[in-house]
Amino acid sequence: MDAEKRQFILKNRKMFSARQLAKKLDLARSEVERVLGEAPAAAPVRTLPVWAEAAVIFAVAFLFRLVYLGFLKNTPFFEPLSATLDDGVYLKMARDIASGNWIANFPLGAYRIPLYPYFLALLFKTAGPGFWPIHVLQAVLGSFIPVWLYLIGRRIFPGVLAARAAGLIGCFYVPLVFFEHFLLGETLSIFLNLAALAVAVTALGEDRPRAPAWILSGLLLGLSTLVRPNTLIAVFFVGCFLFVRYARLRNVRSAFLVPLALLVGFLAPVVPMAVKNAVVYRDFVPFSALGGINFYIGNNPDADGKFHLTKGVGTSLDEMIERSAEIAQKEKGKSLRPSQVSSFWLGRGMHFAFGQPVHFARLLVTKTVLFFNYYEWPDVLDMDFAAAFLPILRLNLFGFGIVAVLGLAGLVWALRLKDARIVLLAVFLGGLFFSVILFFVTARYRLPAVPLLILFAGAGIRAIVSIPKMERAAAAAVVATVVLAAAIAFRPSEPINFATSYNSLAIALKNKGRYGEAERYYRKAIELAPSYPSPYFNLAKLYDQLGRAREAGQLYATYERTKRLTLEHPEEVGA
User: Fold this and answer.
1) What domain count does the chain have?
2) Can you give the pLDDT at residue 527?
3) Phi and psi at residue 300, to the nearest 5°
4) pLDDT per residue as tens digits for the range 10-59
5) Which of 59, 276, 287, 455 has the smallest CB count inside 10 Å?
6) For the chain, first and last CA: distance in Å?
7) Are 462 and 522 found together in one domain?
8) Residues with Cβ < 8 Å from 249, sequence gap 6 or more?
């Protein structure tokens, strides 16, 4: 070995593992290890064992979530605001399942996420019908997210700074905590994704592929996909990567067997759910029949990259599904199964994409900008709106904008390490990104990609600290990424009014018997968005209940008028 290679090994021993150094210098690993063994030992630094640091991260994360719960329990957001929003629908489904409807035969059930209601039902059966067990369990799952990030970071990044930074950001990343306490499947899906990736990263780092590890990884990803179906796209990306990776190593056997093992594990939970849905709904719906409808919502001539009810399909989610089925059946001239309704709307979206390719391409660019923008685009509840009732939400020290900038910079730096495990994580992140911009952007749909951005944000911090020691080209790439990403992430967003949030809050207050507050917030929603039909109807129902028939009648008439206009001009809803 020449002196130049020896000097490179000694200079970079803290940045790269022996295996990475051997690959970079085209040496045997034993040669690198011999040089490292001959080097003067560095002064010992006393650190906690990996398991102890992971336990500390979990404890800090869980304590922060308990403090958040202490604030949350005194607000209307402790339980679902409305039975018509996703969390309210899952609550009703879970209670029905827990009461004996284990086959889960529900109206519009083929359009719902299949696994999460079973998760809630099992919790109701074992811990009782209250909301505290749900919040505590999802806080526990959420507290494992920074632990997974730390453990994965320790495996793939040189040194400990990147892993520790990722774990710390994960502890206090407020949007993760915010969504953990809705009755939604995102927290469970993220936990399963990271567990699957931890297994995959370990398996990929071994000299010989082990089928059981890849089956386990696939199993976890299959469960995650039953909670968030768009995970399917990321799984497909990973399968393709594994095939290409082993094929390039000229290991033909592993090129087929590793993706096959992943597929076997993936299908293990998916097939029984598909069979159940085929029996109950007489249709092939392995995940959800809502995919085609959602695709059209995000890809039509009026789409702007965010979620809007499209023209003529109603003013609520249930009505959207029902009207979408009616329109599809009317155009086809026959009764359609849920999968056929989904295919109809998928076809319409594809017709737009291929018929107007320039418009479609511009829309994808718009959704990409929205995806990396700092703003938490609202779904069930606007986080900025909730912060008025939950001041702890303002402690968002690492908001999405900062995480996106650091994460992209860290990704650029980490890919230069040429480690297949890092590429695997980047491919999965790319799949999640693509699965969002293919439809529409909301904070909730973007959330499963955030932990991987946090992981690479830890690497970004490591990269920025190391800029003075980097080669000029590497340093320039990191700096350029930071500048470009910051320009996108912190681009000013359009102002959002809180009409739908005030309407949902008023529903929750009315259900608690707090009629005066409910009336005030219905009026506030109407003031902010006069063309939004729902608060007129809800306030009319409240007045009916209070015996104010004349005022109720006027509001019902206004509701019918605004609803008719909204069906013709849905883009004005909430404006």
Assistant:
1) 4
2) 92
3) -150, 165
4) 767 666 667 767 777 778 877 777 777 765 555 555 678 999 999 999 99
5) 59
6) 70
7) no
8) none
Largest CA-CA distance found in the chain, in angstroms, rounded: 94
Report the alpha-carbon distance of residue 532 to residue 528 in Å, rounded: 9
If asked whether residues 295 and 331 sit together in one domain, one would say: yes
User: 118 near 104, Cβ under 8 Å?
Assistant: yes
C-alpha to C-alpha distance for 349 and 342, rounded to whole angstroms: 11
Residue with tokens 């594990």: 265
Mean pLDDT of 160-187: 95
Q: Six-digit token pair at 375?
A: 């703003």
Contact assessment for residue 460 and residue 407, using Cβ atoms and an 8 Å cutoff:
yes
Helix, strand, coil content of the chain in percent (nearest 5):
70, 0, 30
Cα–Cα distance, 153 to 425 (Å, whole number): 11
In degrees to the nearest 10, what's the CA dihedral of 332, 337, 338, 339? -80
Tell me, what amino acid is at 558?
T
Number of residues assigned to the chain: 575
**Tens digits of residue pLDDT in 401-427:** 999 999 999 999 999 988 999 999 999
| Spatial CA neighbour of 145 closest among 205, 203, 186, 202 | 186
Q: Are 470 and 269 in contact (CB under 8 A)?
A: no
Under the banding of pLDDT at 50, 70 and 90, the label for residue 572 is: very low
pLDDT band at 573 (very low <50, low <70, confident <90, very high): very low
- pLDDT (average), residues 176-200: 96
Distance of alpha carbon 200 from alpha carbon 216, whole angstroms: 9
Structure tokens at 225: 């996909």
Looking at the domain assignment, is residue 45 inside a domain? Answer: no
How far apart, in whole angstroms, are the C-alpha atoms of residue 117 and residue 212? 29
Q: What 8-state DSSP symbol labels residue 44? A: P
Residues 401, 474 share a domain:
yes
Backbone angles phi, psi at 355, to 5 degrees: -80, -30
Tokens at residue 231, please? 């995970």
CB 522 within 8 A of CB 539: yes
Phi, psi of 200 (to 5 degrees): -65, -40
For residue 98, tell me if it sits in a domain.
yes
- In angstroms, the CA 556 to CA 562 distance is 10
Cα–Cα distance measured from residue 435 to residue 233, given in angstroms and rounded to the nearest whole number:
6
Please determine, for residue 575, whether its predicted confidence score (pLDDT) is greater than 50. no
Question: Is the pLDDT score of 290 beyond 80?
Answer: yes
Helix (H/G/I), strand (E/B), else coil: 108: coil
DSSP 303-335: --SS--PPTTS-SSHHHHHHHHHHHHHHHHTS-
Give the closest residue to 416 by CA, choosing from 455, 454, 460.
460
- Residues 246 and 299 reside in one and the same domain: no
The residue written with tokens 């299908």 in the block is: 267
